[in-house]
Write a structure and sequence with these properties.
binds 2-acetamido-2-deoxy-beta-D-glucopyranose, alpha/beta, 10 helices, 6-stranded parallel β-sheet, single chain, Leucine-rich repeat receptor-like protein kinase
Length: 426
């Protein structure tokens, strides 16, 4: 009897095993065990791994070494930094030609990550939904890649992030209000510590949530060249520390909020190429720190407040139809030229550069600080020298004190001389 039962049960178990085993072998490969393995798996997924040649697993060398060192990404791996506990705190690989996705860079394995800088690569796919898991993150720059999809809501978890830059990607969708601090219960969720938010040249659109105005530490808000629409939220007038506000090249309509006159630290306000209307509030004349103002290609009526030029002593670029009542001094023109020349060379508005000009000139500004990082550097010394003299001329035109700027005549003579030299050298 027992034998009979065995005879029946064994085949039954075998049959069950046949049924059960394939389903367990169909399961995903076992999850990676360490930060090292996650990083190596991500490396394996990239098209060109030569730049990451320092990312190797030395574990198999241990037997060979008299002082066996545990293999760790903290041992001189390019772009990886760690804390004393041996946990990864930084993944910083800007401008390295990385090609691939972030699919295998599982952020749940990097709870201590503080810095993530992957700007200027050729990364595609979506921004991983678990990007919000390393909740200590302070710096997050994925700019100038080819990321698509929408901004993951888990970003709202990053309450420590100071700078967030997703500029120059093909991300789509709208800015979810839940990404930002909630006015009625502030200080708990959202990007509450954000100081610099840069979303330039993306495919984001829709209305700006008024919660943006709860980012009270914000100094830079760059939302230019997107598809944002609707009115500019009045709440942006609460951003008392903001110095750089770019909303240009969107679909904004309606008036400039009157309370923008409260933004006493604003140095650079750019609203050009929108559908803004109404008169420019006279409170804008209160903005005594303004050095650059860019209002063209809107539907404003009336004149710019007289004070704008008088108080700032200067301005960036102003629509001809708005400036005709003002005395356009040559020094104002030459300033605009300076801004424009630097903008062309840098590939973006010279924002912080302008506010820091004095200290930078004192330190001796380097050409590579100014040139557009997306272009290859000058190939010959002669080209580098020519660019240097244009940079120097632009910086001269941007001096804070109008009296110490060259006249437009002198500036154009200097440019002509350079062009002449170039011709005679060829
Ligand atoms: C891979 O990267 C190296 C170093 O960055 C570069 O020299 C090489 O041209 C790249 N190869 C390909 C196929 O992209
Ligand atoms: C041991 O290390 C030496 C030098 O680092 C290397 O030349 C050798 O091939 C290694 N041997 C093994 C078995 O890995
Ligand atoms: C991070 O460090 C802690 C010790 O501080 C350790 O317990 C933990 O396993 C580490 N995490 C990872 C993912 O390596
Ligand atoms: C938010 O951060 C916590 C750790 O502080 C983490 O456990 C959680 O998974 C994160 N949530 C999201 C949606 O990323
Ligand atoms: C803000 O918080 C309040 C109460 O905590 C909640 O009722 C409301 O839905 C929140 N608003 C947003 C936009 O999250
Ligand atoms: C505004 O800036 C000043 C000076 O940098 C700083 O002391 C202050 O804490 C900032 N305020 C906020 C709300 O971030
Ligand atoms: C821009 O937004 C408008 C709605 O405001 C929409 O109709 C249009 O398709 C969007 N354009 C792009 C290029 O996303
Ligand atoms: C901001 O500006 C508005 C309108 O210009 C004014 O009524 C308000 O009192 C100002 N708020 C602060 C905090 O200065
Ligand atoms: C702001 O501008 C308005 C109108 O130009 C003026 O009445 C007001 O006193 C100014 N406020 C400050 C704080 O300068
Ligand atoms: C501008 O100057 C301040 C103070 O000198 C400095 O802390 C900051 O890093 C400078 N910013 C840039 C972009 O150079």
């Amino acid at each position: 009897m027992a034998k009979l039962v065995n005879c029946l049960i064994l085949p039954l178990l075998a049959a069950l095993a046949v049924v059960l085993l394939p389903s367990s072998s169909k399961a995903q490969p076992p999850p990676p065990k360490s930060q090292l393995e996650v990083l190596l798996q991500w490396k394996q997924s990239l098209a060109n791994q030569s730049i990451l040649s320092s990312w190797v697993n030395h574990a198999h060398d241990i037997k060979n070494s008299s002082t066996p060192s545990t293999s760790s990404p903290c041992n001189n791996w390019l772009g990886i930094s760690c804390n004393k506990a041996g946990n990864v705190t930084g993944i910083e690989l800007p401008h390295k030609g990385l090609q691939g996705t972030l699919e295998l860079l599982d952020f749940t394995y990097f709870p201590d990550l503080l810095h993530l800088d992957l700007k200027l690569n050729r990364l595609t796919g979506s921004i991983p939904p678990n990007i919000g898991v390393p909740s200590k993150l302070e710096f997050l720059d994925l700019s100038t890649n080819s990321f698509t999809g929408s901004l993951p809501l888990s970003l709202a978890n990053l309450t420590k992030v100071i700078e967030l830059d997703f500029s120059r990607n093909s991300v789509t969708g709208e800015l979810d209000p839940r990404l930002f601090p909630n006015g009625s219960s502030p200080g708990t969720t959202g990007l509450i510590n954000l100081q610099r938010l840069l979303l330039q040249d993306t495919m984001l659109g829709g209305q700006l949530p008024s919660q943006l105005g709860n980012l009270k530490h914000l100094t830079i808000l760059a939302l230019d060249n997107n598809n944002f629409s609707g009115q500019i939220p009045t709440s942006l007038g609460n951003l008392i520390n903001i110095s750089y506000l770019h909303l240009n090249q969107n679909q904004f309509f309606g008036p400039i909020p009157r309370n923008f006159g409260n933004l006493s630290k604003l140095t650079d306000l750019s609203l050009f190429a929108n559908q803004l209307s109404g008169s420019v509030p006279k409170e804008i004349g209160n903005l005594s720190s303004l050095v650059a103002l860019h209002f063209t290609q809107n539907k404003f009526t009336g004149h710019l407040p007289q004070q704008v030029c008088q108080v700032a002593g200067t301005y960036g670029y102003i629509a001809p139809e708005l400036s005709y009542t003002m005395a356009m001094t040559e020094k104002c023109d030459v300033y605009s030229f300076g801004v424009l020349a630097l903008e062309v060379l840098m590939g973006s508005h010279p924002r912080t550069l302008i506010s820091n000009l004095t200290s930078l000139v004192d330190q001796g500004i380097q050409l590579q600080d100014v040139l557009d990082p997306r272009l290859s550097p000058p190939t010959t010394q002669k080209i580098a020298d020519e660019l240097s003299s244009i940079v120097n001329l632009a910086l001269w035109c941007l001096r804070a004190d109008p009296k110490s700027r060259p006249t437009m005549h002198v500036a154009s003579e200097l440019l002509k001389m350079q062009a002449g030299e170039k011709k005679s050298n060829q």
